[in-house]
Design a protein that fits this description.
By secondary structure, this protein is α/β, with parallel strands linked by helices. The protein contains 18 helices and 13 strands. It folds into two domains: 2-180, 3-Layer(aba) Sandwich (Rossmann fold); 187-364, 3-Layer(aba) Sandwich (Rossmann fold), CATH 3.40.50.2000. The strands form two sheets. The chain has a seven-stranded parallel sheet, with helices on both faces. Helix 4 (80-93) packs across helix 5 (109-118) and helix 11 (224-233) crosses helix 16 (337-348).
Amino acid sequence: MKFCFYSSASEYGGHEVMTLHIMKNLLISSHEVCFYGYSKNGRLNLALAGLKLEFPERLNLFKHNHRAKSIQILRSFFNWRQIFLIVKFLLKTKPDIFIVTQGDIEQGSEGLIAGWISRVDLFSYIPMVLDGRERQLKLSVVRDLASYPYYFLPKAFLVISDYFSKRVNIINPRVDTFVVPNLVNEEFFSYPIDRCNAKKILKLDSTEFTCGFVGRLSYKQKGLDRLIDLILFGRNFFIINRLVIYGDGPDKERFLNELKHKKILECIKLMPWQTSNQPSMYDSIDCLLLVSKFEGVPLVILEALSRELFVITTPIDSIKDRYPVKTIGRKSNDFHLEEFFQAIKVLSCSPISRNSEGRNFVRKFHSEPALNQALTNIFD
């Protein structure tokens, strides 16, 4: 069987990482795969090149010059040049299944139109099914109305949790939805956990409790304004127990300038995202903090749990009441500052240093066998 993936993503995030995992799984199963992606997404293209070295005969890579932009759902109605190029590409490559990888229903929506016009077996692979208000978008009502028809174009949706499967079927009760769980690499289970050495490398006191933030530096989604408020509220605590931040992103400079302005830069240790030996990145902290305003099923939570870390997070509907994490608040946009900080302080005094329940949970539901079984059920 021949699969073709389309992406207009300009960054390399968790959804792109998962797309490559799915592609690799299909390639191992002897399927033919091609990928049609944005030419200037450097990190994604580098990862694809590495995958091409593993499967030189069955993986073909193609590039285009279109990237997702703001209010993409409205732009796609008028972007017939890109739609024509995708249709032309599909007529040339003749895939059995065309999968549009979408960060949300807007990103890659031109691919859905092209796939529908081409009459191929069209799938949407989407990590978040949230309305514009939940994602705090401008013109949210207009964009939701414009998005509605796109849920009726694919033959099926690949989603990352039962929660989002239900959200799709509320909009389109007749479309098939399949859950493809996010995958945690085997190295997160096989690599020995060594907190002391990981902290030593960062020149952190191995006896001190260390919180961490891992992810894209973005105010809009990741709640950096909340993180700043948290540091300000617990300034004396974080001076002693510094907050380690691994990440990069569009708001990095703004974030650092605000920390300097509020005189709390000394409370954090900013580290670049590690592309190799990622388990040690998590081993340098004792607890992962998430203050996001909206999420899918964050890969960083799964990776942290696999390293037996405790996780304190704002409410995320897709994982609430199911995953072994400490959720502060009930509604998706809640942020109770004092309660959140108190949870950190209580955990810092706890004699229990490892979350073995979290590791066992991730191994059962988010390891390679779980992904293999899901894809086998869908495509074989």
